[in-house]
Design goal:
Elements (H helix, E strand, L loop, with lengths): L16 H19 L4 H8 L3 H10 L10
């Protein structure tokens, strides 16, 4: 597995803690899905959550993109 770095820009004047948490969580899950070529089971294992939890989070964030390495 390749090492990846996650960078998030935070604007304290315009973003609440909840918005920052959502942004970081979504970017983390997108990175895990990209790293696993879209394999939700493997991505969930990396994130330390169940596949059901991953699917619920993706639905909550309205993520429909298929993640693959390019």
């Amino acid at each position: 597995m390749t090492d990846h770095c996650l960078t998030v820009t935070i604007n304290l004047q315009k973003q609440s803690l909840a918005e920052v948490q959502k942004s970081v969580e979504l970017k983390y899950l997108e990175l895990a899905l990209t790293e696993t070529d879209g394999n939700k089971t493997h991505a969930a294992n990396i994130a330390g959550i169940t596949v059901l939890t991953l699917r619920r989070k993706l639905e909550r964030y309205n993520v429909k993109k298929v993640y693959t390495l390019e």
